[in-house]
Specification:
Alpha-Beta Plaits, 6-stranded parallel β-sheet, 12 strands
């Protein structure tokens, strides 16, 4: 059975999940959503089509919702979504939002899964100790395997988001009122070496170097990939990230995210 998995990943959690699921499926192709962001329409005739992405502000990242809106699939395709986050499914509206977007297109979400992983949103809180991080990632592997088995068997599965409505409202408020100004919160310290990693890892090409220093434009996704992949930790977001740890999934490298076809 032909399968396509479209993924968006900033710090590697979702890419790792997408790879693990793909490894359990025959004839599966992984495709980066950011690489297709300029496409007006995306056609896919695979029998199984999946979306793997992080939860941002308790819901969908704008890049993901835009992608799903442009995607056209066969009416009988098995459509699944897998979202990664630093909290459990009851603090999310992501799957419900995917279902609503597909309903608007005359399609149905066949299965949805939450994978509780490490939150990379360090403006809110620092990363947990290494021992706790490793334990949480080990537990995530079990959830990934469970999701992969259900997808492989083409089973209907819907992990309920019982409190999705208020979290959907929070996500909408963030997207319309906070996200447009997020780029102004980024700053760069004198530790910057002008390596350009931030420019390369940005999923929407929103960063450019001027006089060797990064400048952020208005199309920010607030994914914080630039902050986490700065090798000298020179990038800050607001006033709370200074001194806090940086993160990427231990099995995902900078090259994995910037050169997905290699």
């Amino acid at each position: 059975m032909k399968t396509t998995i479209y993924y968006f990943s900033a710090t590697g959690n979702s890419l790792h999940v997408a790879r693990e699921i793909a490894a359990k499926l025959e004839d599966c192709t992984l495709v980066s959503m950011p690489e297709l962001r300029e496409s007006k329409t995306i056609l896919d005739d695979a029998e199984r089509v999946g979306f793997v992405f992080p939860t941002h502000y308790f819901g969908l990242p704008p890049l993901v919702s835009s992608f799903i809106t442009k995607l056209e699939t066969d009416k009988d395709s098995y459509l699944f979504a897998v979202t990664t986050s630093g909290s459990n499914r009851h603090f999310s509206s992501a799957l419900q939002q995917v279902a609503m977007l597909l309903t608007e297109k005359g399609r149905k979400l066949s299965a949805g899964f939450h994978i509780d992983m490490i939150s990379s949103y360090t403006p809110l809180s620092d990363l947990p100790p290494l021992e706790k991080t490793n334990k949480k990632l080990e537990q995530a592997e079990l959830a990934i395997e469970k999701a992969a088995n259900a997808i492989s068997a083409v089973r209907g599965n819907h992990e309920a988001e019982h409190f999705w409505l208020p979290f959907h409202a929070i996500n909408k408020y963030w997207r319309w009122n906070l996200l447009p100004h997020a780029y102004r919160k980024f700053s760069c310290t004198d530790a910057c070496t002008s390596c350009g990693n931030c420019e390369k890892v940005c999923p929407v090409n929103n960063i450019s170097l001027h006089a060797g220093k990064p400048q952020w434009r208005e199309n920010c996704q607030e994914c914080l990939a630039c902050l986490h992949f700065c090798p000298v930790k020179s990038i800050e977001f607001g006033s709370r990230t200074a001194g806090r740890k940086r993160y990427h999934h231990p099995k995902i490298t900078f090259t994995d995210l910037t050169n997905p076809k290699k």
